[in-house]
C-alpha cells in the first residue's frame, strides 16, 4: 500500500511517546498537535511517582512553554480543555518492565489503542553511570519492544538513536545496522546480557563493601567508559545507545521497526519560531564560552566537517519516516544530518562566531562588552598541549614561584588554572568531533524525501540542503543560545 501524507497518517491515531519532556519530544508534540488537530490521543510517558505528578510535569514542562503560543492563540480560552482532550500523561519509567506503568487498566488501554510508538527516552550524559545508562538506553528499548509486541494495532515503532553509535569510523558512514555479539571493530565478542550482569555484579560488590555514594558513582562511570572503549565506542552514552539499537534490530522481522540517527541537534530553524532551544547543547559550549572570552584555544582541523541539524528539521524528518517508511522495507536506518547534503566546516563555524561576537559582544555583569580574538586552532593535540604549556603552565609556575603573596597574584593563578582545566576538558571531550573526517550518508532519508508529496514538502521540510548556515548561525542560532545562556545564569542567581 502506498504511503499517505503526514496529516492523513496521523488522523485519528493514538501515539505513545516516551521521554516526552525532552527537547526534541516537546517540539514533536507541538508539531503533531498543530499539524493534525484530529489526532486521537498522545500518551506521554514521563518519569513520575504517580499520575498527578505526571500531569503536573506535562503541564509545567510542556503545555505552558512558549512553543505552544500559536496553538494557544488559535484555541484561546479553549486551549487547556482541547490540549488535555488530546494529551494523556502517563507516569512511568522505561528502565522498568511494563515501562513502570502501575495502572493495569491504563497499560491495557495503551496496548489496545496505540498505533505508533516513538521511543525517545534516554540519558544523554556521555559519562553516565554504566548501570544507569544500561537501564535506560539499552534495557529501555527492550521494555518498549515488550509493550510494542502487545499492541494489536501497531503500525510503527520508531526508535530515536544517535548517529554517533557509529563509533570511531571515519570517511562516509553508511546507514547500516549494528549486530549484537559483535564489537564495532569486530575484535571482541559483545553480549548485552553479560554487560548487564557485569554492571549488576560490580554494583553489588560496591554496596557490600559499604562504598560511599561518591565512590559508587565514580566507579560505575569509569567502568562505563572502559567498556565502551574496549568495544570500539567513544563514550558510555553512544555504547549503550548502540546496544539498544541491537536489541531493536533483532526484532525487525516480527515488528514494524525503524531507527533514526540524528547528528548534533541545534536550535529551531523555522518552527514553531526560529531560535528556540533548551539548555546548552553540542557546539553551544564553544559558542558561549568563546563569546565570554573563556575559550581561546580549541584543537582541530579547520577542514573537518561538523554535522549539526536544527531541532525542527529533526522533528520533520521523524514525521517523514512515520509517514513514508514502508513495512516492506523493515529495519531501515535513517541518518538525519547535514554533512553530506550541506557540509559546514569547523573553520567556517569559528569564523562566523568571531564575526558575530565582534559585532555583538557579550556584556558581562559589570555592563562591559567583552572583546574576542579569532579562536586559535592547533592542528594536532601535541601542538595544543605545547600551546597550553607556554601560555598557561609556565605563567602559573612563575606566579607560584613568587609565593602567591598578594591577592592579585592568587587571583591570576586561580584564573589561569581554571581556564587551563576548562580548555583541556573541552579539547578532550570534543577531539573526536574536531579531528575525525567523517560524513553521515543519508541515502535512505533522501529516498523518503523523494517520495513526499508536494504538500508534505511544505508541511514537514527536512532537506538540510536549503539551510544557509551563515544566516542561520548569525541571525538565529547564536542569538538563541546566548539568550538561553543568560536565562540560565539569571535562574542560577535567584
Automatic annotation (TrEMBL):
<dbReference type="Pfam" id="PF03015">
    <property type="entry name" value="Sterile"/>
</dbReference>
<comment type="function">
    <text>Catalyzes the reduction of fatty acyl-CoA to fatty alcohols.</text>
</comment>
<dbReference type="InterPro" id="IPR036291">
    <property type="entry name" value="NAD(P)-bd_dom_sf"/>
</dbReference>
<dbReference type="InterPro" id="IPR013120">
    <property type="entry name" value="FAR_NAD-bd"/>
</dbReference>
<dbReference type="InterPro" id="IPR026055">
    <property type="entry name" value="FAR"/>
</dbReference>
<keyword id="KW-0444">Lipid biosynthesis</keyword>
<dbReference type="GO" id="GO:0102965">
    <property type="term" value="F:alcohol-forming long-chain fatty acyl-CoA reductase activity"/>
</dbReference>
<keyword id="KW-0521">NADP</keyword>
<feature type="domain" description="Thioester reductase (TE)">
    <location>
        <begin position="17"/>
        <end position="318"/>
    </location>
</feature>
<comment type="similarity">
    <text>Belongs to the fatty acyl-CoA reductase family.</text>
</comment>
<dbReference type="InterPro" id="IPR033640">
    <property type="entry name" value="FAR_C"/>
</dbReference>
<dbReference type="Pfam" id="PF07993">
    <property type="entry name" value="NAD_binding_4"/>
</dbReference>
<keyword id="KW-0443">Lipid metabolism</keyword>
<keyword id="KW-0560">Oxidoreductase</keyword>
<feature type="domain" description="Fatty acyl-CoA reductase C-terminal">
    <location>
        <begin position="414"/>
        <end position="481"/>
    </location>
</feature>
<protein>
    <recommendedName>
        <fullName>Fatty acyl-CoA reductase</fullName>
        <ecNumber>1.2.1.84</ecNumber>
    </recommendedName>
</protein>
<dbReference type="GO" id="GO:0006629">
    <property type="term" value="P:lipid metabolic process"/>
</dbReference>
Amino acid at each position: 500500500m502506498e504511503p499517505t501524507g503526514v496529516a492523513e497518517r496521523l488522523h485519528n491515531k493514538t501515539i505513545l511517546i516516551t521521554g516526552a519532556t525532552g527537547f526534541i519530544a516537546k517540539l514533536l508534540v507541538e508539531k503533531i498537535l498543530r499539524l493534525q488537530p484530529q489526532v486521537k490521543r498522545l500518551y506521554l510517558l514521563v518519569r513520575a511517582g504517580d499520575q498527578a505528578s505526571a500531569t503536573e510535569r506535562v503541564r509545567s514542562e510542556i503545555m505552558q512553554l512558549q512553543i505552544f503560543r500559536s496553538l494557544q492563540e488559535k484555541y484561546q480560552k479553549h486551549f487547556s480543555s482541547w490540549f488535555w482532550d488530546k494529551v494523556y500523561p502517563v507516569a512511568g519509567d522505561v528502565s522498568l518492565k511494563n515501562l513502570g506503568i502501575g495502572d493495569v487498566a491504563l497499560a491495557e488501554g495503551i496496548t489496545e489503542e496505540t498505533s505508533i510508538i516513538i521511543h525517545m527516552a534516554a540519558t544523554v550524559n556521555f559519562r553516565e553511570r554504566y548501570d544507569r545508562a544500561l537501564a535506560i538506553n539499552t534495557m529501555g528499548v527492550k521494555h518498549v519492544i515488550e509493550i510494542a509486541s502487545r499492541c494489536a494495532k501497531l503500525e510503527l515503532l520508531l526508535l530515536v538513536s544517535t548517529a554517533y553509535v557509529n563509533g570511531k569510523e571515519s570517511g562516509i558512514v553508511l546507514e547500516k545496522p549494528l549486530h549484537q555479539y559483535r564489537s564495532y571493530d569486530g575484535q571482541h565478542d559483545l553480549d548485552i546480557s553479560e554487560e548487564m550482569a557485569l554492571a549488576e555484579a560490580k554494583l553489588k560488590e560496591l554496596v557490600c563493601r559499604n562504598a560511599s555514594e561518591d565512590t559508587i558513582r565514580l566507579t560505575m562511570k569509569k567502568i562505563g567508559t572502559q567498556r565502551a572503549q574496549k568495544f570500539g565506542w567513544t563514550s558510555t552514552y553512544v555504547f549503550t545507545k548502540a546496544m539498544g539499537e541491537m536489541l531493536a534490530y533483532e526484532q525487525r522481522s516480527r515488528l514494524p521497526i525503524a531507527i533514526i540517527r540524528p547528528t548534533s541537534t541545534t536550535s529551531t530553524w523555522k518552527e514553531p519560531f526560529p531560535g528556540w532551544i533548551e539548555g546548552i547543547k553540542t557546539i553551544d559550549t564553544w559558542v558561549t564560552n568563546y563569546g565570554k572570552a573563556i575559550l581561546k584555544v580549541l584543537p582541530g582541523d579547520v577542514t573537518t566537517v561538523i554535522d549539526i541539524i536544527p531541532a525542527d528539521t529533526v522533528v520533520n524528518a521523524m514525521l517523514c519516516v512515520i509517514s513514508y517508511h514502508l513495512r516492506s522495507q523493515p529495519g531501515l536506518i535513517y541518518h538525519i544530518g547535514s554533512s553530506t547534503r550541506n557540509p559546514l566546516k569547523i573553520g567556517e563555524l569559528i569564523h562566523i562566531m568571531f564575526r558575530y561576537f565582534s559585532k555583538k559582544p557579550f556584556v558581562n555583569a559589570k555592563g562591559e562588552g567583552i572583546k574576542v580574538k579569532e579562536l586559535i586552532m592547533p592542528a594536532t593535540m601535541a601542538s595544543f598541549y605545547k600551546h597550553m604549556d607556554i601560555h598557561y603552565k609556565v605563567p602559573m609556575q612563575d606566579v607560584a614561584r613568587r609565593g602567591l603573596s598578594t591577592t592579585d597574584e592568587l587571583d591570576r593563578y586561580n584564573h589561569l588554572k581554571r581556564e587551563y582545566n576548562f580548555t583541556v576538558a573541552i579539547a578532550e571531550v570534543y577531539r573526536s568531533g574536531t579531528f575525525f573526517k567523517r560524513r553521515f550518508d543519508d541515502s535512505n532519508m533522501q529516498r523518503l524525501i523523494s517520495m513526499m508529496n508536494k504538500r508534505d514538502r511544505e508541511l514537514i521540510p527536512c532537506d538540510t540542503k536549503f539551510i544557509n548556515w551563515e544566516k542561520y548561525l548569525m541571525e538565529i542560532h547564536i542569538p538563541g543560545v546566548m539568550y538561553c545562556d543568560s536565562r540560565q545564569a539569571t535562574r542560577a542567581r535567584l
